[in-house]
Amino acid sequence: MPESTRIVVNGEEISTQPGATIAAVLASRGIACRRSVTGDLRGPLCGMGICYECRVEINGIPNCRSCQTICEPGMEVSTGGG
Amino acid sequence: MAAEKKCFDVLIVGGGPAGLAAAHRSARAGASTGIVDDNPALGGQIWRGETPHNKSEAAKWLNLPRTHVEILTGTHVFHADARSRTLFAESRLANFELHYNHLILATGARERFLPFPGWTLPNVMAAGGLQAMAKSGLAIRGKRIVVAGTGPLLLAVAAYLAKHGANVTMICEQASFTRLVRFGLGLAAQPSKIVQALGLRRDLAGVPFSANTWPMKAKGNGVLQSVVLSRNGHTQELACDYLACGFHLVPNIELLALLGCNIRNGFVEVDEFQKTSVENVYCAGEPTAIGGLESSLLEGEIAALSATGLQDATGALRHKRGKLSSFATRLETAFTIRPDLRTLCEADTIVCRCEDVVHGRLTPHPSWRAAKLHTRCGMGPCQGRVCGPATEFLFGWQPDSVRPPIYPARFESLAFVEHELGA
User: Fold this and answer.
1) CA neighbours within 13 Å on the CB side: how many for B59?
2) Cis ω for the linkage preceding B408 (within 30 of 0)
3) In this complex, do A27 and B356 lie within 8 Å of one another by their Cβ atoms?
4) Residue B71 vs residues A43, B68, B308: alpha-carbon distances, Å
5) Residue B334: inside a domain, yes or no?
6) Could you give the ipTM of this predicted complex?
7) What integer pLDDT is reported at residue B420 of this predicted model?
8) Alpha carbons within 13 A on the beta-carbon side of B161
9) What is the crossing angle of helices B127-135 and B153-163, to 10°?
10) B258: in domain
11) Are both B87 and B178 inside the same structural domain?
């Protein structure tokens, strides 16, 4: 197993520990996941795939739950969507 | 994206303790078994991050015989058709049509959330949610964390966080000290639960615990900075990096409701063999009652024995299960949410986080249905899983009937269902 997995978040390459979820990586770095319908920043709430607050875009696919997605090498993540 | 069709004698939804116990019994009976779970790995929330390779209790159950059990993780069921005994599910990269002879639903529970000003700030998380995040790589060492809400989960979460280097500033339990003592003493009939409680003591040494205490407001500019507590009638503000906040558990019954299983007082009705009111559909674990780990394991085993024609072999398991049956009721009594928590919201406090519906827009409405129609409360991606239990507590609203898809699904997955069912 590699010592770290590199992913790209909002255009910036970052290294993550193997097995980490995207939500955990974002929260550790203080990056919010999305904007609410009235424009507030939001991060994960339930941590188990129920609340959909941790939605981000992964490899061009919008509305992916980052708390249920393990980082894979080269994954491209964009935050701040609706 | 191709749809994969699979057929199982016994199909299990939920890979927590109840589902894993069911999978073991089903495989041992020689049935072709499938187990589906939305999470990236089996284990449920309680065993998240555990592996089948160590000597823990979790490892024993996580080690499924792969020859008889097909595991579909990262896959969530969004539709079901009881008549043709089919579930429809999707993963990030595929969709599935899953046929079964017997279906065991072990869908677990989620935390109950109650809104208060500031609860939508980033870094205000569920109690179990923060623990799940920590197990999934969130850095918590040295972080100041207030754990608040109600229920035994708060202690387990605080112990985990403290053990892993977090600075747990305070555990705030809204229940009164009297109720907690009554609950604690009542546990004498169940020694293993006491051991469980004692097992946490070492990790919780030095962590302040305060009953009669609850969060009134989370403060911060774009991100959480502090929490204002009501503590024994006084207010106190604590600076923190995270607020881990949950108000006991509510069962995940949406799939059972969609299949037409009888639901009473929010829980699924089962007989002593874990059969629901729908033929060939069984239920085990938290959707039948919030009874904890031991009950869930036993119910999973009983359900699988019943499903594989070994109903006669369930006697000892049912006896053990019966002994634990009062636990759920006593939990519910000890951790009843006090009415004071209904008064925390201000008019502009968000209640439905998906659609940003504030408290003041909900108060004129007489029912959940009316509120949904007029404000879109509960109509977002979580489908009311967060604000439904909250509005039930705040306004006494009862949930509507469940309609498919029970989770947001991709368009091609829905089109596939339409094609298959001719709906």
Assistant:
1) 6
2) no
3) no
4) 30, 10, 19
5) no
6) 0.96
7) 83
8) 33
9) 30
10) yes
11) no
